[in-house]
Design brief:
The protein has about 270 residues and is of the alpha+beta class. The protein is built from 3 helices and 17 strands. Strands 1, 2, 3 and 4 form a 4-stranded antiparallel sheet that branches. Strand 12 (about 190-195) and strand 13 form a beta hairpin. It is elongated.
């Protein structure tokens, strides 16, 4: 019984997250609307829970199958036969919406110089990689759980962000975008957790260069040194097995790379 419950829970969770990511990629609302494409009453006069379908004159139970507005199957729900088609569909949507928020319950905040705090974005999985373009007009931000890097319009005077769009889509890859930094040419350097690499993206989101690393989990990168000409890369060893650590003894170390381009100076918090 426990095994069956666990399998069902895992299937539903994977199914729900996949649907949410799918809708996110095409710019639709993460939590969908839906419609019933089929409701079928089934005779079950001996069932412990049953109802009477007056339209079909059947005592038993009813299957409700709901899809979202893009035609993707949400789930199948089994109720008593007296539950209407629309009510059965609403039950499905309510249950889906209860489950979906937990992987994406994070937020992006801005702390101003007067120590006031503003929420800038919601429904985030894992926040990572904040960075700004050299002209301070673009703000970059990664949601590692979604495996997406976003770009926003940025207002330096007010700190406001707007017009979110996908800058780099890693959702079909086995790695996740982690920490990031910007170089003097306006290119974004992204550490790729589980990717064994650092990636340099051009301002239009294209991949300009891939720097292979001797460790599986680079975590972040930042330019430093006297002329900001060295790219420093941090890494992690947490969660790796003994065999994996034996194959990458430098995991958890900090690396200094000469990548042929300089970074930008960092600014101190004004508060």
């Amino acid at each position: 019984m426990v095994s069956r419950f666990v399998r069902r829970f895992m299937f539903q969770t994977i199914h729900d997250v996949a649907l949410m990511l799918d809708r996110e990629r095409v710019g639709r609302e993460a939590s969908p609307t839906g419609g019933v494409i089929d409701s079928q009453s089934i005779k079950a006069p001996e069932a412990k829970t049953r109802g009477y379908d007056a339209g079909k004159k059947i005592v038993g139970r009813k299957r409700h199958i709901a899809v979202d507005t893009d035609g993707r199957l949400l789930m199948v729900n089994l109720t008593t036969a007296d539950i209407s088609d629309s009510a059965g569909a609403q039950m499905i949507l309510d249950n889906v919406r209860k489950r979906w928020p937990w992987p994406f319950a994070g937020s992006l905040y801005s702390l101003d110089a007067d120590l006031s705090c503003r929420r800038m974005a919601e429904a985030i999985g894992i926040s990572n990689g904040p960075a700004w373009s050299p002209d301070d007009r673009i703000f970059y931000f990664a949601d590692s759980r979604r495996r997406l890097i976003y770009a926003y319009d940025f207002d330096l005077a007010t700190g406001a962000i707007a017009n979110r769009r996908v800058f780099a889509d890693c959702s079909h890859e086995p790695f996740e975008p982690d920490g990031a930094t910007i170089d003097e040419e306006g290119c974004l350097w992204s550490a790729q957790w589980n990717g064994w690499r650092i990636v340099r993206y051009t301002p239009d989101g294209g991949v300009d260069r891939i720097v292979e690393m001797p460790v599986q989990r680079p975590t972040s990168c930042m330019f430093g040194g006297p002329n900001l000409g060295t790219l420093y890369v941090t890494s992690a060893r947490i969660g790796l097995t003994d065999e994996e650590l034996a194959a990458q003894p430098q995991a958890g170390g900090v690396f200094a790379l000469d990548v042929g381009v300089r970074g930008l100076p960092a600014f101190r918090f004004a508060g």
